[in-house]
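A quick word before the example. In earlier lectures we treated sequence and structure as two separate objects. From today on, think of them as two lines of the same record. Here is Argininosuccinate synthase written that way.
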Amino acid sequence: MSERVVLAYSGGLDTSVAIPYLADQIGGEVIAVALDVGQGGEDMEVIRQRALDCGAAESIVVDARDEFAADFCLPALRANALYMDRYPLVSALSRPLIVRHLVEAAKRHGGTVVSHGCTGKGNDQVRFEVGIGALAPDLKVIAPARDFAWTRDKAIALAEEKGLPIDVSHKSPYSIDQNLWGRAVETGFLEDIWNAPIEDIYSYTQDPSAPRDPDEVVITFDQGNPVAIDGETVTPYQAITELNRRAGDQGVGRLDMVEDRLVGIKSREVYEAPGAIALIAAHQELENVTVERDLARFKRSVDQRWGELVYDGLWFSPLKNALDAFIADSQKHVTGEVRLVLHGGRATVTGRRSEASLYDFGMATYDTGDTFDQSLAKGFVQLWGLPSRMASARDARLAD
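And the structure line, produced from the sequence above:
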């Protein structure tokens, strides 16, 4: 019985050429699976037909925008996920979703092999293959660009030889990956880390230095999830889309960083994530108001580890699942409203309110109405500093 290959299909050169190449190499059928995760660009029906025209036995297109927003972007928001304290996990979030659908397609269509278009240098090969191994360890994986040492020249030659319906005349100087949560740009002149980004590489954001009026927005959260914008109820997808537009118009969410890749090299990446950055800024501030101090301190370390696990391709790992349970419990009281001013490339919190607030005006004020008993403070300070004083006295005694 011949193999059936389930291919993560993007519609681009490499995955289009992979269809006839895999069919020849394996002697079986290729099932192309493409997901709409809010990346924009070509019509998904055009992509579906292209896969068939390239020789796919079946071509599956999934509108996964709402699923991506609710099941992947919102968990990242509740975890304030910023890899290296900056990057909101744009590509890393979409890969486990794609893996989920690849595995489902393999089970439904009798696939025995899964294939993707990643090279051996990037993080995505790990995210795909570790995820597939967690969900369906019996499936084999082939990555043509990595396993068979493909080059762009070889891919173009094969496309021309097979007469594939792909325009190979245009080559972008950049490698770009984008979805609902953001946009990543690398390679080309950006590989010289002294070169500044140029305005032409940006798509999700406008020039933050251009003169414009500020935009004030109020985001309503319910247990850590955005549920309304300026009083209008929204779905997770609508919340992110709206803030991508409004924050993007103000130049919010541009990042230029050298990051530590999982494979051990450093790479220069330019990101745009206006909605993600604005939402995380608002969510963090609401947590500051509603989450108890020790829980908040510990959650910050959990958030960092959660982001590292997702970046490293361990979405389906036991530790990630356990951290999800902790984060979910921490969000029970993260309900309320946050006011942001979007302007000049920044999302600035200017107001917050919540029925679950731990901020007590009477305890905090220095004016009339102060309910804080300052007479208790002297003894508290003495007891709090007692271990340090005892250690200092011990050190002085031993030094003598």
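Notice the following. The CA atoms of residues 362 and 370 lie 5 Å apart. We will return to this example when we discuss secondary structure assignment.
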